[in-house]
From TrEMBL:
Purpose of the protein: Catalyzes the phosphorylation of ribose at O-5 in a reaction requiring ATP and magnesium. The resulting D-ribose-5-phosphate can then be used either for sythesis of nucleotides, histidine, and tryptophan, or as a component of the pentose phosphate pathway.
Organism of provenance: Sulfitobacter aestuariivivens
InterPro entries: PfkB_dom (IPR011611), Ribo/fructo_kinase (IPR002139), Ribokinase (IPR011877), Ribokinase-like (IPR029056)
EC number from the UniProt entry: 2.7.1.15
SUPFAM superfamilies linked: Ribokinase-like
GO cellular component: cytoplasm
Annotated localization: Cytoplasm
Family: Belongs to the carbohydrate kinase PfkB family. Ribokinase subfamily.
Cofactor note: Requires a divalent cation, most likely magnesium in vivo, as an electrophilic catalyst to aid phosphoryl group transfer. It is the chelate of the metal and the nucleotide that is the actual substrate.
Name recorded for this polypeptide: Ribokinase
GO molecular function, one term: metal ion binding
Annotated CDD domains: ribokinase (cd01174)
Gene (UniProt): rbsK
Length: 290
């Protein structure tokens, strides 16, 4: 089972001819709103990958719709609290090539307490998985509690802060980050990824696939991306991580879990949106990736 300490956002999508520059006013050609946040995206992805997922998070007084949407997508929601702070949201601009930029407001995602997190993890069992990112507060307490209870810890280090990763070093079983973040972590730590006290590290490489560093392997292993026509890259990394965590939680070997996650991410970039359009296992089974 996966316990995901993660953000819940309203995602506001603006389709634009190009990403705006400094001081530029740009007219959007389309607007859509949906469920998002790295945490919510990963919960939905993991549930659609066949894992049982309980989301640990918070919404504002305006956020019951998000809780209901997660429930519809197969995510357990009893540990989503309601706070006085507004639900988090993201304003996302997407250009004609599918590239994006994002402005975040954390809102209720930053109002979690140790009591909320502890009450959820008290129901976990040894061997379960704690999944977390950097869009909420409470990560150090959650990781310490998870380790005490015998849970595996999967950390998707975004939005990236090298000091946040270093503070959890030695307590993470699997770290997922992109190539730029990997370089920043190596620079901050003063040593390469293989020298860090983390058993497994997966570095996503966008259209070039991903690279797996394991403390039990002499060489890193690279996995190529599946060729697709990209429409929107928003949420692809979250889909990858959710599927990867779910595959491992279901007992798949790392290589098989990575391959499944690569397929899910490939399908995700062919769709516009975030949590609402994350592919499920049947989508992957029905698609010809050759």
């Amino acid at each position: 089972m996966i316990w995901n300490l993660g953000s819940i956002n309203a995602d506001n999508f603006y389709r634009v001819p190009h990403l705006p520059g400094p001081g530029e006013t740009l007219a959007a050609t389309d607007f859509q709103q949906g469920l998002g946040g790295k945490g919510a995206n990963m919960s939905v992805a993991a549930a659609r990958a066949g894992a049982r997922v309980t989301h640990i998070g918070a919404v504002g007084p305006d956020g019951d719709w998000a809780r209901q949407r997660l429930l519809e997508y197969g995510v357990d929601t009893p540990h989503i609290a309601t706070t006085e702070t507004a639900t988090g949201h993201a304003n996302i601009t997407v250009d004609i090539s599918g590239e994006n930029n994002i402005v975040l407001f954390g809102g209720a995602n930053q109002a979690l307490t140790n009591q909320m997190i502890g009450a959820a993890l008290a129901e976990a069992s040894p061997g379960d998985t704690l999944l977390l990112q950097n869009e909420t507060n409470g990560q150090p307490f959650a990781v310490q509690t998870a380790r005490t209870l015998g849970l595996k810890v999967v950390y998707a280090a975004a939005p990236f802060q090298a000091e946040a990763v270093q503070a959890l070093m030695g307590q993470i079983d699997l770290l997922v980050l992109n190539a730029v973040e990997a370089e920043q972590l190596e620079s901050a730590a003063g040593r390469g990824l293989r020298q860090l006290d983390i058993a497994d590290i997966v570095v996503t490489l966008g259209g070039d696939g991903c690279r797996w560093h394991s403390s039990s392997h002499a060489q890193a292993e690279t996995f190529g991306a599946y060729p697709v026509k990209s429409i929107d890259t928003t949420g692809a990394g979250d889909t990858f991580t959710g599927y990867l965590a779910a595959g491992l939680d279901r007992g798949l070997p790392m290589k098989d879990a990575i391959d499944l996650a690569m397929k899910a991410a490939a399908l995700m970039v062919t769709r516009q949106g975030t949590a609402d359009v994350i592919p499920d296992l049947k989508d992957i089974q029905d698609h010809d990736f050759s």
